[in-house]
Amino acid sequence: MGKPESLITHVADRHGHDQRYAIDPHKANVELGWDPVTTFEVGIKKTIDWYLSEKGMKWIEQCVESKQEWLKANYEDGK
Q1: pLDDT of 31-76, one tens digit each?
Q2: Could you give the CA distance from residue 77 to residue 30 in angstroms, rounded to a whole number?
């Protein structure tokens, strides 16, 4: 995304936090006949590009507004 790695802040894992995720599409292939057509590398780039697009940014703004409304409705101080 063109940002320096110095912006990454590592934090301690929470108790019970998954150490890794491994997705195996074998079951989907066997039971549904489905195979992925997009590699992870291509898919993650498309995902990031969408979030950075006008449509993605608008969706993010709507999510933030919705969260702010929920906080105001459920917490007195809105935090």
Answers
A1: 999 998 999 899 999 999 999 999 999 999 999 999 999 999 998 7
A2: 52
Residue with tokens 């990031």: 48
The token duo for 46 is: 């498309």
Contact 79, 72 (CB under 8 A): no
Tokens of 29: 């292939």
CA dist 79 and 71 (Å) reads 6
Return the structure tokens found at 62: 């709507």
Helix (H) or strand (E) holding 46: helix 40-52
**pTM beyond 0.85, yes or no:** no
The alpha carbon of residue 3 and the mean position of all alpha carbons in its chain are separated, in whole angstroms, by 18
